[in-house]
């Protein structure tokens, strides 16, 4: 059962009407004080048994001209990247590098190619684009070695569908209203995601706005996970008992056979 619905009935409203409704739903203070106002079709994704992914609509409006860049990233976590080498005809792990702050999920979308919207120094400063994610290695290596491990980390995440292989598309309806769709895979990590939108013009960031998207387990899986963290010793004992009972039952059945 998928707890987060992929579509809502009002999604079938014509695009222009949907955007107008979105403008009404955007907080009044944001629309009053900022040149950029955004919102999400839903701010909670529930993961339960049978979860196959989710789709979230991001929409908004701008004051004045400019392009739009959207970044979505999950909380950072520690990731170990290992390099294999062939020793005596066998592939073994030879080197490794730990990155302390790699986002578990990263997605970028824009109304035009990123290099046309912002210069590289601003993209690097704001970690816009997979190539500019600010990974921090846990050890010091040469520039070439660190670059190779960074590239391997990105490849692994892209292979798992957690980093986008190409930037998504932000589409404008008229000169002010825009929208894009955020696709979350089935293996998406849980946590509070930062959804950040930039309004850019003439190679500069004019304004930015953020929203929070929560991805968490619900139902039985959530209760088991919560129990495992809050009652770790008891959970370990129960797990061992279940394994012993399962082993005894399997031995009993096969002995009879």
Structure explained in plain terms:
It is a single chain. This protein has 257 residues and is of the alpha+beta class. The protein has two domains: 9-218, Immunoglobulin-like (Sandwich); 219-257. The protein is 31% helix and 37% strand. The chain is built from seven helices and twelve strands. A hairpin with a 2-residue loop joins strand 11 and strand 12 (204-217). Helix 6 crosses helix 7. The chain starts with 14 loop residues before the first helix and ends with a helix.
Q: Which helices and strands occur, and which strands form pairs?
A:
Layout: H1 15-25, H2 28-33, E1 36-40, E2 44-47, E3 54-62, E4 67-73, E5 76-87, E6 90-103, E7 106-110, H3 114-117, H4 120-125, H5 143-159, E8 168-169, E9 171-173, E10 177-184, E11 191-201, E12 204-217, H6 220-230, H7 232-256
Parallel strand pairs: 2-12, 7-8
Antiparallel strand pairs: 1-3, 3-10, 4-7, 4-11, 5-6, 9-10, 11-12
Helix pairs in contact: 6-7
């Amino acid at each position: 059962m998928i707890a987060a619905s992929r579509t809502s009935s009002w999604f079938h409203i014509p695009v222009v009407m949907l955007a107008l409704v979105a403008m009404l739903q955007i907080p009044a203070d944001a629309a009053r004080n900022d040149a950029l106002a955004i919102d999400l079709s839903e701010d909670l994704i529930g993961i339960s048994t049978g979860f196959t992914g989710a789709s979230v609509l991001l929409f908004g409006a701008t004051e004045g001209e400019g392009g739009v860049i959207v970044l979505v990233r999950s909380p950072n976590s520690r990731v170990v990247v290992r390099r294999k080498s062939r020793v005596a005809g066998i592939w073994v792990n030879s080197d490794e590098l730990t990155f302390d702050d790699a986002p578990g999920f990263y997605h970028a979308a824009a109304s035009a190619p990123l290099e046309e919207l912002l210069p590289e120094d601003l993209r690097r400063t704001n970690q816009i684009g997979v190539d500019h994610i600010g990974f921090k290695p846990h050890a010091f290596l040469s520039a070439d070695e660190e670059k190779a491990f960074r590239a391997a980390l990105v490849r692994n995440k892209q292979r798992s569908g957690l980093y986008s292989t190409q930037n998504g598309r932000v589409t404008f309806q008229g000169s002010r209203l825009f929208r894009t769709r955020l696709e979350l895979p089935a293996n998406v990590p849980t946590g509070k995601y930062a959804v950040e939108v930039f309004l850019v013009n003439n190679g500069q960031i004019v304004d930015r706005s953020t929203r929070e998207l929560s991805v968490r387990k619900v139902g039985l899986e959530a209760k088991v996970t919560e129990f495992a963290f809050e009652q770790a010793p008891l959970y370990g004992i129960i797990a061992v008992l279940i394994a012993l009972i399962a082993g005894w039952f399997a031995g009993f059945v096969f002995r009879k056979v």
